Amino acid sequence: MKIYVVGNPLVPEDSMPLKLLPKLKKAYPCIDFEEADPNENFIPEEGSIIIDTVAGIDRVTLFDSLNAFTETHSVSPHDYDLGFHLLLLKKLHKIQSVRLIGIPQKASSADILKAVAGCISS
Questions:
Q1: pLDDT over 80 (residue 90)
Q2: What's phi and psi for 68, nearest 5 deg?
Q3: Which of 7, 54, 79, 119 has its CA 20 to 30 A from that of 60?
Q4: 107/121 Cα distance (integer angstroms)
Q5: 27: helix, strand or coil
Q6: Given this structure, which CATH class describes domain 2-121?
Q7: Which residues, in sequence order, are CB contacts of 73 under 8 Å at separation 6+?
């Protein structure tokens, strides 16, 4: 199984997934964790999982469908985020589906790690 981890180390509210990456690699040595950047021609493998920060949630959430996300109207390249990227890939038939473990913007890493582990195990 491959799990992609997306985040921005320079933005505190978007850095939690990357902070968890070393702990996740240690806890799950049989899983292939890969840091990914949606701005770098990122096309996730079928059956993989993505871990990213999701605005508007208050707990770790497993999303099984892109339909759970609100489509925004991008007006500049700065609006290009993972959600927009995945919707574009789906429209281009590059991916069929994706599972995403969403991490809330504000939470402690200990609580988040336990919840993410629960999502991975399920």
A1: yes
A2: -75, -15
A3: 79
A4: 21
A5: helix
A6: alpha beta
A7: none
